[in-house]
Design goal:
Blueprint: H1 2-49, H2 53-57, H3 59-67, H4 75-87, H5 95-104
Helix pairs in contact: 1-5, 3-5
């Protein structure tokens, strides 16, 4: 009976380690791809809008937007997002990526 209990514990421990490793890989892959998308957007925006007054004025609103996971949308951020999309319609970025890029400026 003692052997069966030890075997069960070993199997459960092995399964939980494998699940943790898989979760870690999925998490790092997700974060890596998100970082690449944000980096590309950031470089596009910083080269084009680094001295744009409308975009720079939206930094506080962008910080609130990012910190609240998109719940808080300020008027200056809305104006900046609209301005960016008008000036660079080729950008394929969502609002959160643009707000993160504004914070980097």
């Amino acid at each position: 009976m003692h052997y069966l209990r030890l075997t069960s514990i070993a199997v459960l421990l092995t399964a939980s380690c494998a699940a943790s490793a898989t979760s870690f890989v999925v998490t790092t892959d997700t974060l890596g791809s998100a970082t690449v998308g944000t980096t590309d957007t950031t470089s596009d925006i910083s080269s084009s809008f680094g001295d744009d007054k409308i975009v720079l004025a939206a930094r506080d609103d962008a910080a609130s937007f990012v910190a609240s996971q998109g719940e808080i949308r300020g008027a200056r951020l809305e104006a900046a997002l609209q301005h960016i999309r008008q000036q660079a319609p080729q950008l394929q970025a969502d609002d959160l990526q643009l707000a993160q890029a504004i914070l980097v400026l």
